[in-house]
């Protein structure tokens, strides 16, 4: 199976499993990813999603270029919309996602990582949006998500030159949360464990508030924050958290 989904304790793990093709994307595989994410959204007993690529050479080397050629204009647009809609599902999941970038993350591979909530990278990870070298621009969300992470000027420079960004630079500019040595999957579990012990509904409120920050004015964003923080107060977990603080004990959140 080119896309595998399994449960690993508190986590769902989505693996692109085409190591012989550097886990490259096809339209069929995009559809498989979308269906896998729908399954994740329906899971009731997970606390985060980990996304990775099989093998040690590539997270995902991007689109299958052969599929992109000699297609009617409407099919080109539908292809971009498919990639965008599939990757957008990561932002609407009830749990956060962590991309574990092992090796190449080019084109659609970088865009898949960008769509995740967080990104961890192995020291050999290399990011790139090289579409400009083909006479194209990123089409699966790269032009929108990259500047939100690294700023407009740096995003334009990366996109307009098509250059590679190695792991150490990616960490320095905020493209990844951390570069980790050793077992990347275990590092992903450990990283996610830092927040998954808290209330899942309240974690989702926090994600929603921050996600909207780049889409609305400050005034509107503050209204959204007020609404979501008020909803957080209405949860049983908020009552437990505040009571635990006053009683000087560890809170026992129950996701309610």
TrEMBL record:
Keywords assigned by UniProt, alphabetized: Lyase
GO biological-process terms attached to the record: fatty acid beta-oxidation
Record-level Gene Ontology MF annotations: hydro-lyase activity
Pfam name, any one: ECH_1
Residues passing through the membrane, by range: none
Family: Belongs to the enoyl-CoA hydratase/isomerase family.
PANTHER family found in the cross-reference section: ENOYL-COA HYDRATASE, MITOCHONDRIAL, ENOYL-COA HYDRATASE-RELATED
Entry protein name: Enoyl-CoA hydratase
Organism the protein comes from: Pseudooceanicola nanhaiensis
């Amino acid at each position: 199976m080119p896309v595998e989904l399994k449960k690993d304790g508190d986590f769902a793990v989505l693996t692109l499993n085409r190591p012989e093709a550097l886990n490259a994307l096809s339209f069929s595989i995009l559809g498989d990813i979308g269906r896998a994410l729908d399954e994740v959204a329906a899971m009731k007993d997970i606390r985060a999603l980990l996304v990775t690529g099989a093998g040690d050479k590539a997270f995902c080397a991007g689109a299958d270029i052969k599929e992109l050629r000699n297609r009617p204009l409407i099919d080109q647009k539908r292809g971009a919309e498919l990639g965008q809609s599939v990757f957008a599902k990561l932002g609407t999941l009830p749990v956060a996602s962590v991309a574990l970038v092992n090796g190449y993350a080019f084109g659609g591979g970088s865009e898949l990582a960008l769509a995740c909530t967080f990104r961890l990278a192995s020291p050999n990870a290399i990011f790139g949006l090289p579409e400009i070298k083909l006479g194209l621009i990123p089409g699966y969300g790269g032009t929108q998500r990259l500047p939100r992470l690294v700023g407009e000027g740096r995003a334009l420079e990366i996109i307009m030159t098509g250059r590679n960004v190695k792991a150490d630079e990616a960490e320095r500019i905020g493209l990844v949360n951390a570069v980790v040595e050793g077992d990347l999957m275990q590092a992903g579990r450990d990283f996610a464990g830092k927040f998954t012990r808290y209330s899942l509904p309240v974690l989702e409120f926090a994600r929603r508030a921050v996600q909207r920050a780049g889409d609305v004015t400050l005034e509107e964003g503050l209204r959204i924050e007020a609404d979501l923080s008020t909803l957080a107060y209405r949860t049983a977990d908020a009552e437990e958290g505040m009571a635990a603080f006053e009683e000087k004990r560890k809170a026992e959140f129950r996701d309610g």
